[in-house]
């Protein structure tokens, strides 16, 4: 009887360990995203921007972590996979925003990012859907879908992405988890293709591609992880 009881207790313990591992994968690998994206790491990016950059008083680590609470699959792989995803995310963010300098796309208001063929997310003729936020969310269909997912009126109030830092980071994480996260195993180059491949990849803008790669290598080095293969597109 004692042996049977011991077996039952051991089985219960194994089941508890498995359940905890499933619910809290970050605890298994020992580090959460917040542990990796330290103040020093985040501010190291922000400090590359000049003092008069609007992003310096807008983008904060606290806003990123607050937004992150809605996207718990971000950085949820192994220790190295998590670090590579964080490096890839912030490399693309740094490129898109000039090291967190810009909140809105330069001269964005003069450009037309309304896809009138998209009837699911019709444009408000009084609004502009140019790049805003850490990954420079663009186009009416992205604003509409992001708004529905996050809980703000992306079509009628796209400017919210440039006025609320938590929603701003949420749009970047929404875009990442919707379009980029699933191609991480193909290498960093696949993240570039997912974000701006039609314009930059296959020789479209090799300077922009190299800029993203340079940031990625820098952040991988800071986080102590190998960048992996297939960095370009």
Automatic annotation (TrEMBL):
Protease recorded as keyword: no
GO molecular function: chitin binding; endochitinase activity
Species in which this protein is naturally found: Carya illinoinensis
A GO BP annotation: chitin catabolic process
Catalytic activity: Random endo-hydrolysis of N-acetyl-beta-D-glucosaminide (1->4)-beta-linkages in chitin and chitodextrins
Keyword Disulfide bond among record annotations: yes
Protein name in the entry: chitinase
The protein's Enzyme Commission number: 3.2.1.14
């Amino acid at each position: 009887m004692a042996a049977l009881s011991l077996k039952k207790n051991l089985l219960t313990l194994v089941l508890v360990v498995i359940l905890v591992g499933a619910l809290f994968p970050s605890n298994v690998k020992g580090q959460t995203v917040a542990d990796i994206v330290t103040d020093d790491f985040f501010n190291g990016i922000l400090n590359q921007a000049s003092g008069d950059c609007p992003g310096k008083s807008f983008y904060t680590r606290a806003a990123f972590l607050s937004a992150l609470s809605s996207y718990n699959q971000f950085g949820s792989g192994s220790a190295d996979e998590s670090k590579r995803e964080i490096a890839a995310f912030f490399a693309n963010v740094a490129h898109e925003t000039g090291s967190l300098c810009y909140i809105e796309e330069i001269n964005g208001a003069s450009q037309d990012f309304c896809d009138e063929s998209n009837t699911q997310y019709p444009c408000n003729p009084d609004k502009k859907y140019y790049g805003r936020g850490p990954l420079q969310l663009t186009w009416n269909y992205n604003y509409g879908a992001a708004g529905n997912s996050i809980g703000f009126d992306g079509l009628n109030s796209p400017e919210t992405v440039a006025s609320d830092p938590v929603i701003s980071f949420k749009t970047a994480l929404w875009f990442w988890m919707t379009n980029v996260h699933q191609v991480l195993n193909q290498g960093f180059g696949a993240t570039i293709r997912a974000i701006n491949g039609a314009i930059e990849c296959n020789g479209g803008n090799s300077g922009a591609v190299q800029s993203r790669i340079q940031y990625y290598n820098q952040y991988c080095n800071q986080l102590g992880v190998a960048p992996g293969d297939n960095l370009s597109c």
